[in-house]
Amino acid sequence: LPVQSAITQPRPGAAVPPGELTVKGYAWSGGGREVVRVDVSLDGGRSWRPARLKKENREPAVPGRAWAWVLWELEAPVR
């Protein structure tokens, strides 16, 4: 299964003030494969930024397998 991702913050259509914005979400894959990178576009795909994966305290349930999902966040400037 290819990696899929969803944005959970900010909500769709939310008005955000200028300055630093925290974008949060989750990504998942399949087959016991680890999500190793999430890239986020804030301009309709013209440019991409790598998000920070939040993997602290995550041990795989089965040796040799990885968790199928991971939380991520990105700090980005907003005009």
UniProtKB/TrEMBL annotation:
The keyword Transferase does not apply. Signal peptide: none annotated. Its cofactor is Mo-molybdopterin. Residues 1-78 form the Moybdenum cofactor oxidoreductase dimerisation domain. One of its GO terms (biological process) is sulfur compound metabolic process. GO terms for cellular component: mitochondrion. It comes from the Eukaryota. One of its GO terms (molecular function) is molybdopterin cofactor binding. Keywords: Metal-binding, Molybdenum, Oxidoreductase. This is SUOX oxidase. It comes from Psilopogon haemacephalus (coppersmith barbet).
